[in-house]
Amino acid sequence: MKRILIVGLPTLAALLLILTIGPATGQVKKGKTRPLTTHQLMSGLVRPNCAALGKGVKKAPTDDKGWHALATNAALLNEASYVLMADGRCPDGVWAGAAKTLREGSAAALKSIDQQDAAGTATAFKSMTQACAACHKAHRPKKKK
Ligand code: HEC
Known about the structure:
The protein is mainly alpha-helical and about 140 residues long. It has five helices and no strands. It has one domain (about 1-140): Four Helix Bundle (Hemerythrin (Met), subunit A), CATH 1.20.120. The protein is elongated.
């Protein structure tokens, strides 16, 4: 009986550790079933659209075509906030809160962009980018070579 406990308890502890920590880290880097990694989502969708939107905030578009391009950027960032919450990727409340900030900020930016309101777009952009910092502080690997 003692033997079973000595062997069994650490095994149980290890199993619980894998169950709680293992899948959580897996989900941060990738969803459960779909192939897109968080790294690809960030470098392929989030970063380029955030950079383009930031450019438009610094120097407002001068024609409809420019505003339409910004609307595309904001709408794609809005969509990214849903992808971040899908497929079991979200590990905790910090992540969920940041995704919500990204969603609401990009939606507000889109509204201002539709009205070609440069000041409103800048304000919304600023609040939206708080999502990047909040989530990265908690979940982005500290140092990648
Ligand atoms: C809900 C969480 C979350 C939000 C919100 C978020 N990110 Fe990320 N981001 C991550 C995680 C996690 C990584 C690390 C991915 C990895 O390397 O596995 C990352 C990595 C990155 C990277 C590095 C990608 C690379 O090439 O290694 C960039 C750039 C980036 N994010 C940009 C942004 C920007 C810009 C925003 C805001 C518009 C943003 N992220 C919002 C979670 C988030």
